[in-house]
TrEMBL record:
Entry's Gene Ontology molecular function annotations: ATP binding; protein serine/threonine kinase activity
Protein name: Protein RALF-like 34-like
Protein kinase domain location: 3-270
Residue stretches of biased makeup (Low complexity): 316-340
Biological process annotations from GO: signal transduction
Organism annotation: Hibiscus syriacus
PROSITE patterns, alphabetized: PROTEIN_KINASE_ATP, PROTEIN_KINASE_DOM, PROTEIN_KINASE_ST
Length: 369
């Protein structure tokens, strides 16, 4: 596809993100974004393309649509094409929502992120930079993990220095979301994504980082707190008990005891919405069953009337106690509502026939005055 660079919609340490505009105005190509950087600095973007190509397609992972080289303004650029997220990032959504999200929204976003992480981890990779800025939203409701520039194979050892066998210390991702084992042992396995997810959930719910980190605070002091101390990220007190327990499973110092994405998807906090829907459906089914019982009055107003006068004898709630005796004495002489009102299905059949329905005054009407 021949394309031209559109407006800038973002930027990062790698370079800039622009909209992709096809040269052919009638092109049927999907709307795309392009991440570009100088070819000499393209290690991160090339790594992102390689990882996305290897892990394959997943509804919760941003799609890679290819890459190429261009020469612009005398410089050679590497371009990575990705599907365009028209609703921006989860960080943008947090700002639009006044700095914090409802727990139901937090749960929904977390569920999508976990599904994406489960897929990534099953393919043998670690994202290494889970944060709100790297979770993209789409107008159709999709939530997808993006920015795989720092991703690596699960269990892959970091580079070792030529002199000596000590590993080179390398900070991957955002320090505020980094896991203790990454600080202490320079380890970046699948468990680090779960720790970072917990930090992201706290930020979604409170609008603040999981760690109380004020501008100007020494970064080394923060890393020591994360790696050495027994302190854990703060869990919001306003969060439900299930939510607190869920975060407790994310914020486990020992990565071997930290829950996996697969385990967390089965946590009650993730199933809460589904349970609410299930309970609501069960209540509806129970009400429907009760409506067929002689003890239930639902039948009295379940049929659609043909005219404004075709309603049962309504009893005022204010005078119900005083009129109970008189209404019961008249019940034998007044036919039941179901006896003179045809069913909705019968109404539809009447309307569906060739001859127009007769809605003129008939003996089936009730005279109210």
């Amino acid at each position: 596809m021949e394309w031209v660079r559109g407006e800038t919609i973002g930027c990062g340490s790698f370079g800039a993100v622009n909209l992709v505009l096809p040269k052919n105005a009638f092109s049927k190509s999907p709307l795309m974004a392009v991440k570009s950087c100088q070819l000499i600095d393209s290690v991160s973007l090339k790594n992102e393309k390689e990882v996305l190509d290897r892990i394959g397609s997943c509804p919760q992972i941003i799609r890679c649509l290819g890459g190429n080289h261009t020469v612009e303004k005398g410089g050679r650029l590497y371009n990575l094409f990705l599907e365009y997220a028209d609703k921006g990032s989860l960080a943008d959504q947090l700002k639009k929502s006044g700095g914090r999200l409802m727990e139901s929204d937090v749960r929904r976003y977390a569920r999508s992120i976990l599904k994406g992480l489960r897929f990534v981890h099953s393919k043998g990779f670690v994202h290494c930079d889970i944060k709100l800025q790297n979770i993209l939203l789409f107008g159709n409701g999709d939530v997808k993990i993006a920015d795989f520039g720092l991703a690596k194979r699960n269990g892959e050892e970091e580079e070792e220095e030529e002199e000596g066998e000590k590993r080179r210390m390398e900070i991957r991702g955002t320090p505020l979301n980094i896991a203790p084992e990454s600080v202490n042992e320079n380890v970046y396995d699948s468990a680090v994504d779960i720790w970072a997810l917990g930090c992201a959930i706290v930020e979604m719910f409170t609008g603040k980082p999981a760690w109380n980190f004020k501008p100007g605070t020494n970064m080394a002091a923060l890393l020591i707190k994360i790696g050495v101390s027994d302190e854990l990220p703060g869990i919001p007190r306003e969060l439900s008990e299930q939510g607190k327990d869920f975060l407790g499973k994310c914020f486990v110092k020992d990565p071997k005891k930290r829950w996996t994405a697969e385990m967390l998807l089965d946590h009650p906090f993730m199933a809460c919405d589904d349970q609410i829907v299930s309970n609501s459906m069960n209540r509806c089914e129970e009400e429907e069953e009760e409506s067929t019982s002689p003890r239930c009055s639902f039948e009295e107003f379940s049929a659609s009337p043909k005219s404004p006068f075709e309603f049962p004898d309504w009893v005022s709630s204010q005078s119900s106690s005083s009129s109970q005796s008189s209404s019961s004495s008249q019940s034998s002489s007044v036919p039941s509502f179901s006896s003179y009102i045809s069913s909705p299905l019968d109404r539809i059949r009447e309307l569906a026939c060739d001859e127009a329905a007769n809605w003129s005054v008939s003996e089936r009407w009730i005279t109210l005055r």
